[in-house]
Write a structure and sequence with these properties.
Layout lengths: L1 H6 L6 H8 L3 H13 L3 E4 L2 E4 L1 H25 L6 H5 L8 H11 L25 E2 L8 E7 L1 H4 L2 H10 L6 E7 L5 E5 L2 E5 L1 H4 L2 E6 L18
Antiparallel strand pairs: 1-2, 3-8, 4-5, 4-8, 5-6, 6-7
Helix pairs in contact: 2-3, 4-6
């Protein structure tokens, strides 16, 4: 979870870890003390950082978790909203040889089904800096859903809602209206849907050209201007 918070650009503090893991602060503190003693992390005030060894272990677990999600959704046919919890049971038991077989079988995917990058993939996944929160997209702008943040992945009910609304990675839409409280009205798949502020801040998207702002197509045979 520390590595995931770092991936999202958020500092890892014990209170945040407790919330994400749905554990008591005391339970998280006990684990942090043990991992620090084992050399996997360090503490700088309230902020927790992974050591080089700790980052290596965390990256390997993230990679296997996200490959397992791909296998579950793309091959076995597990629901998109169920894959995260199920993959959590697989991530610690996948061997090196099975991991390599998964990469070959799945075609070295760049992201998990929820759009989060798979460490070590040779294929490109959008960097966090290339994406914006859906809540920052203005009315009239179009977007393509790129990534569902990990804290949403842990809430199966939210995943089912997004799946039913068509707000999954690769889906395109536009913002029709932004209400005074920040609620967005989205047009996705020909249907207008409201989306609250909290959720819109945790969906990462790419801005795409709006049909209303695309430059006019040139007629064949006419020279390009300039």
């Amino acid at each position: 979870m520390i590595a995931i918070l770092g991936e999202e650009g958020a500092p890892a503090v014990q209170a945040q870890l407790a919330r994400r893991l749905d554990k008591t602060p005391a339970a998280v503190s006990e684990v942090v003390i043990r991992l620090e003693a084992d050399g996997y992390l360090t503490r700088n005030g309230r902020v927790i950082n992974l050591t080089e060894e700790g980052r290596g272990v965390a990256t390997a677990v993230m990679r296997r978790h996200r490959l397992a999600e791909r296998l579950l959704v793309d091959v076995i046919g597990i629901s998109w909203s169920e894959a995260h919890l199920e993959a959590g049971r697989w991530e610690h038991v996948i061997s090196d040889s099975v991991e390599q077989r998964l990469v070959t079988l799945l075609g070295d995917p760049s992201t998990c089904p929820h759009g989060n990058p798979i460490p070590g993939s040779h294929n490109h996944a959008p960097n966090r800096s290339e994406l914006v929160a859906l809540g920052d997209v203005e009315p009239g702008e179009a977007f393509r859903v790129a990534r569902i943040t990990e804290d949403i992945e842990q809430d199966e009910s939210l995943l089912r809602f997004l799946e039913g609304a068509g707000l999954v990675p690769g889906a395109t839409g536009s913002v029709s209206e932004k209400q005074p409280d920040g609620t967005l009205l989205l047009e996705v798949g020909g249907t207008v849907r409201p989306l609250g502020v909290s959720l819109s801040r945790r969906l990462l998207v790419e801005r795409t050209p709006s049909p209303r702002t695309r430059p006019p197509r040139r007629r064949p045979g006419r020279p390009a201007p300039g």
